[in-house]
Amino acid sequence: METKTRRDFLSLGDRRAETHIASVLVHARPEHVEELAARFTRLPGVESHGSNGAGKLILTIEADGDDVLIERMTRIETDDSVIAATLVYHHAEDLSDEEVSGDVA
Description:
The protein has a four-stranded antiparallel sheet with strand order 2-3-1-4, with helices on one face. The protein has one domain: Lrp/AsnC effector binding domain/regulation of amino acid metabolism (RAM) domain (Alpha-Beta Plaits). Helix content is 24%, strand content 36%. It contains three helices and four strands. By secondary structure, the protein is an alpha+beta fold.
């Protein structure tokens, strides 16, 4: 059995159909939160779920691959108005497996 390294998983060579859902907590100066929410929700797959008025913004990201998710996270966390962006939740779903169908009683 071949052992895979972390590099193998991160490389683009072994691509599977998958979807990723992530929740991100963004910390910013309170006066920039509305502007950031508008800017980030223009990115494909990014939705804003509100802020607390004290500089915290909750975002979700849906992406068709870990490379897309990483790109969105990088764009968010490297924005000049962002103090910190923390990944709170992440779920990956392998879509290449056949779904089991059937009636549920």
